[in-house]
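Colleagues,

For the teaching module next term, I've prepared a clean inverse folding example: a structure given as tokens, and then the sequence designed for it. I'd like students to try predicting residues themselves before seeing the answer, so please don't circulate the second half yet.
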């Protein structure tokens, strides 16, 4: 019951998606606008920086809170916090309230990492900054972080079971980034350099698109790649 309680707590709280709620309040479905992702970055694209930042903070905080709340509610279950945190990520990505089509889980992953150990989060943040600069793709941050963090948790806590539980959320994150990997292979995934070298990045994307609508698709890819 404690395992189930921890998982359900995380899953249902994770399914509370602020970017989707803000979009509905403004009369549209964020999943059908901008990059098509129900996350903070698409909230920036479709509703502005303020709402985007609020959405990001909310997603981080909800994962942080369920981690500690589960530890308080289920003290006999040593993996309550990490279980609830992992299922918060899964609930954010596959929310039942939204037809299992939510966000991509990076902000929630950050919240779980902070709840586990703020120093680990800062080290991971620094490492992922390097990953972002080296690969020039923001999606690689989520992909590598979702792989590294469970391993770090498992080693530090001496808990293969905890690493395995976090691995479930990693599978969800990786699944949601399959399309990004496909676009990288096709040469149509926008790079981070789009933020400061927009003209050249649009030209690169255009050259990899075929058809008369190549320029329009390239601009859209810029938004998609930044989510």
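(Answer key — instructors only)
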């Amino acid at each position: 019951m404690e395992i189930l309680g921890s998982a359900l707590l995380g899953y249902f709280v994770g399914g509370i998606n602020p970017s989707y709620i803000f979009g509905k309040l403004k009369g549209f479905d964020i999943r059908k606008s901008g990059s098509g992702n129900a996350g903070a970055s698409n909230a920036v694209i479709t509703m502005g920086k303020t709402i985007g930042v609020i959405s990001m903070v909310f997603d981080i905080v909800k994962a942080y809170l369920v981690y500690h709340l589960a530890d308080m509610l289920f003290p006999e279950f040593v993996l309550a916090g990490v279980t609830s945190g992992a299922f918060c990520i899964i609930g954010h990505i596959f929310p039942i309230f939204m037809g299992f089509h939510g966000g991509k889980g990076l902000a929630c992953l950050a919240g779980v990492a902070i709840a586990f150990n703020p120093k680990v989060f800062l080290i991971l943040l620094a490492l992922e900054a390097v990953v972002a600069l080296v690969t020039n793709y923001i999606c690689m941050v989520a992909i590598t972080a979702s792989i590294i963090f469970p391993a770090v948790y498992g080693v530090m806590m001496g808990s293969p079971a905890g690493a395995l539980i976090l691995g479930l959320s990693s599978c969800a994150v990786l699944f949601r980034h399959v399309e990004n990997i496909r676009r990288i292979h096709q040469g149509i995934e926008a790079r981070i350099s789009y933020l400061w070298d927009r003209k050249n990045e649009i030209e690169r994307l255009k050259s990899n698109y075929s058809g008369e609508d190549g320029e329009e698709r390239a601009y859209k890819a810029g938004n998609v790649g930044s989510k």
